[in-house]
Amino acid sequence: MRRLMLLRHAKSDRPEGTDDHQRPLAKRGRRTSPLMGTYMAEKGLMPDLAIVSTARRAKETWKRARSAFKHNISRRKEPRIYNASAKAILDIIKETAPDVKALLLVGHNPGLQDLALRLIGKGSQSDLSRLHQKYPTAGLVVIDFDVKRWRDVSDDLGRLIRFETPKSIGDPADVR
Fold this sequence. Notes:
This is Histidine phosphatase family protein. The protein is α/β, with parallel strands linked by helices. It has helices at residues 27-42, 56-66, 86-94, 111-119, 125-133, and strands at 2-8, 49-53, 74-78, 102-107, 120-123, 140-145, 158-164.
């Protein structure tokens, strides 16, 4: 079995004159990133490897979320995730080494949402309906696959295990 976790970067700021790739997290993003990391750690959602977009907001999201884990988690920066299509992200997933059982990708929309919807074949209809409507910043999708190798992951093979957002796990200040 393989577990894929997709974490959309947390809410980012848009400082004037800042290139999109260099946009930092906004105050809300700095608060929700560790909240999502704590949630993941408490629920045993620990990745063997985190593949993180090179965009500043994605790197900051993972750095803050990562602080909730007690164990070392390997991380790889991946420029191909930035502004990537679902197909491009899936190609990255398929390259993952076989010893990685739980993989986390920290990236962007619309690629992550499109990928999740493409891969999910089964799961909670209410979670799937929410995911179809919106994949908010700092949202986490967990998909399990009954495959032996990452290269065998394909459309409709995944089971949606959970779709959580800062709001769904109890952050009353997160209104989006």
